[in-house]
């Protein structure tokens, strides 16, 4: 683990590390915000944030405006990159596939399967690494994300509830099996067997898993330019059928971007803080 | 004035406009944050933010994390670009000169003088335009900035105290006549006559103008990688000689970037709010 950037921020440190990832078969970077309490060697709760298409490990740190409240709440924020990267990694034909578009799943077929193992990377390799390298409070780790990363957060939380105790999302791709972004990614990474797809589809998963969380928070802008990709209503119906409480908030006038995220980021951090201390 | 981007943000709007600038002889863009009160047609105070080298009209909006408190304080935030832009505009041999490096002065010699008229652009043309197009409270306009834009804010406030009622800066180039960035910019834009330079040097200007403001706030990181370009101590001495109150705060561990700015942005907005309502 090599520290490649560190900036003092609200008396804590916003950092970027480079690692050699076994699961991604190559280098990867991740960001981490360490509040002052963590720098002082005291254990803190942590929340993973999974970013959306085209983003990197630093997008959230620059654009989401989370550090101020994270500093107050003593929350560690962990931000993986959105895919494997590098010259040897498939670029993809568009920004919705390949580099910057890993979809937080493990690819099952060529040319993707060699590097695109983002589920194992986030939920296993990076999860273990940060728990080993930083003082993180046991049983106080949450996960949230945006768009493709909202899909990632919901599905990883539903798959690994023993690892992630709280989950929320902004403008999540809630039913990837039923939207163009998800169909393209899943057919490339997983193949054409749609039974396989449903294992990585939050709307299908929540019905299978049942009520795992006290609450799930999703914020959605009603002027979101990608609204047709997101399907929050399908997820809401599945949660209802599964008995999973969902707080789905729809916001007049807000779009898909980080100006929307920054407007509601504090509610998400407070939500995780409350869930992790319940 | 053409609206080219608008994003809902904390119940207000973060916008970018494109204009044909007379003073820059070409197109220019500026950002503006309008809190909800302004959208509702009520007059609000406004603060100009001048960004540093390489930045654009959107850097502050993305990275400074100012909108949340601006929404609470009903402050309009106005962010010009850092230079003229375009194919017909001199690019410069490095990022410290030419496009992205206008230094908020009027160039006096070729090849710069045709477009690089940033002082007139900000203090006259854009100032008039925003006062005409938006409901801004009379006598409640402040200015602040970062690095090159800190130099811009200090000098424009000292030159036009009737226009700017409050002034602050992050990591300002406080004595451009005495640092490499300033020497390069001033010799290019103004020529070799150093008497001319002093008209655009905050450390010289404050001595000439005397005490114009109740207080000036400057935040400076002590791990700033460009510390030798900034000379806050020279400005402090000049303020002392001029009887101008200066609150210069030096912060252990903070560097030159926006993670530093976001850590103290609220203090600056509160400072302007207080000064503009005194």
TrEMBL record, chains A, B:
Record keywords, A-Z: Hydrolase, Serine esterase
InterPro entries: AB_hydrolase_fold, Esterase-like, S-formylglutathione_hydrol
Documented EC number(s): 3.1.2.12
GO molecular function, one term: S-formylglutathione hydrolase activity
Catalytic activity: S-formylglutathione + H2O = formate + glutathione + H(+)
SUPFAM superfamilies the record matches: alpha/beta-Hydrolases (SSF53474)
Enzyme class: hydrolase
One Pfam family per UniProt: Esterase
Free-text function comment from the UniProt entry: Serine hydrolase involved in the detoxification of formaldehyde.
Family as reported in the entry's similarity comment: Belongs to the esterase D family.
Protein name per its UniProtKB record: S-formylglutathione hydrolase
Species of origin: Acinetobacter faecalis
